[in-house]
Amino acid sequence: MIESYRAVLRHGDVRRVLLLGTIVRVPLWAANVILTLHVVTTLDRSYAAAGLLAAVATVALSVSAPWRGRRLDRDGLRAAVAPSLVVLAGCWSVAPFVGYWPLLVLAAVAGLFEVPSFSIVRQVLLRAVPEGQRTTALSIDSVAVEVSFMIGPALGVVLATYLPTSWALFACQFASVAGGVAIWLADPPLRGTPAPAAPADPAPAAPTGHRPPAVRDWLDLRVGALLVMSAAATMVLTGTDVGVVAALRDMDHQTWIGWELAVWGAGSAVGGLVYGALRRTIPVAALLALLAATALPVALGGEPLLLAALLFVTGFWCAPTVTASVDELTRFVPERVRGEALGWHGSALTLGSGVGAPLAGIAIDHVGWRGGFVLPALLGLLAAAFGWAASRRGVERTATTTARRPLVET
Fold first, then answer.
1. Which segments cross the bilayer (predicted)?
2. pTM of the full predicted structure?
C-alpha cells in the first residue's frame, strides 16, 4: 500500500497541487464556523438567521459550480480564476464589517465566484498521473479533504476565541484568497495531450478557448445516475452528522460530540487510504450501498462507545464512495468537459448535504434520534439500487450499439 502512494507522490505536480488545495480549503472550513459565530454573537442574530446565511451561500455554490467549471474548460485556469480573486477580495474586505443583510448579499455574490479549487485539484491530479494511478491520486485528495476538514473548524473556533469574529472572518477569507492567488501563479496544467479517440469514444478534446460541448451531449443516463448517487452519499453523511449530535444530546454526552465525529472522520481517512491502494476500482453503487447499509446499525448504538465503533465502520466507506464517484464521472465524460462535469458533481454533493440535514431533522422530530440515521440510509440504499440498474442499462446499451456498428474493411 505504501509503495502505491509513494509512486503517486513522486510526481511534482501532485505534491504541489495537494499543498495548494490545502492552503485554500483549511481557511474555508474555518471561515464557515466563524461565519455562524459572527452572526450569532457579533451581529446578535438567531441560529435561524445563521442557517439562512449558510443556505444562501450553499445555493450560490451549487449554482456557480457548473459554470465555473465550464469556464475552466473553455478559457483555462488563469482566465477562469482571475475574476474570482477580484470579486472575492472585494466582497470579503467589506462583508465582515457590515450588518446582517448586506453580509447575506455579499456572501451570496462570493459564493457565485468561489474559486473552483476542488475541480482544479482533481483535474491536475488526473492529468499528472498515469491511468493505473488515478484511484490512488484521487484517494490522496479525499484524505487531504478529511484532514483539512478536521483542522479548519478547530482553527476557526480558536481564532474566534482570541480575535473579534469580524477580523477572524477577514483573516480566514483572505488566507483562502491568497491560496487562490498561489494557484493562479502556479497555473498547473489541467489537461494533457489527448490520446487518439477510439471509435466509441466522445469527440477528441478541443483546444482551450473553443466552446466545449453542451451538457445534453454528455449528460446521459449513467452520468445522471452517478450524480444522483453522489448527492445520496452526502445526504447519508449529513444525516449521520445530525444524528450523532441528536444521539449524544439524548444520552446527555454533548461533550463527546467532537471526538465522536473525529472517530468518524478517522474511519473515512483509513477507508480512503485502503481504497486508494487497491489495484481495481469498486463501482459507486456498491460503495454507496455499503455506506448506507453500515449507517443503519449506527441507530443501535445506545451508548457512546458503541456509537463511536459503529461510526468508524460507516466512516470507512465515506472517502471511497466520493473518490469512486469522481473517478467514474471523469471516465464517463470527454476530457474537454471535465471541469464542468466536476462542477455538476460538486453541485450534487452540495445538494445532498442541503437535503440530508432537514430530512434527518424531520425523522428525529417524529421518531427520535435513531430516525436521523435510518431515513437517510434507506434513501441511500434506494439511490444505490437505482445507480446499479442505470449502470447495467448503460452497459447493455453500449454492447447493443457496438454489436450494430457495421464492419469496415481496410
1. 17-40, 46-65, 77-95, 142-161, 219-237, 257-275, 282-300, 306-329, 341-364, 370-390
2. 0.77
